[in-house]
Design goal:
There is one protein chain. By secondary structure, this protein is α+β, with helices and mostly antiparallel strands. The chain has a domain of 39 residues. It is built from 1 helix and 4 strands. The protein has a two-stranded antiparallel sheet. The protein has a two-stranded antiparallel sheet with strand order 3-4. Strand 1 and strand 2 form a beta hairpin. The termini are far apart.
């Protein structure tokens, strides 16, 4: 079983945990429709970079 050789200080422990914080998701707004979507993802309406990529059920 691994046992540490000496106590880890609060500073050292904090430095290790500094990247563990959660970040919010980055959202973008479509130029044409104004819909909010995740970066590099298709909008709920089927648009990507201002162009219709996926036909939705309403349009068919």
């Amino acid at each position: 079983m691994a046992v540490q050789k000496s106590k880890v200080s609060r500073s050292r422990r904090g430095q290790r945990r500094s990247h563990d914080a959660l970040t919010s998701k980055t959202l973008s707004q479509d130029a044409i429709t104004g819909e909010m979507h995740l970066r590099h993802h298709v909008t709920p309406g089927g648009f990507f970079k201002g162009r219709q990529i996926v036909a939705t059920a309403d349009e068919e």
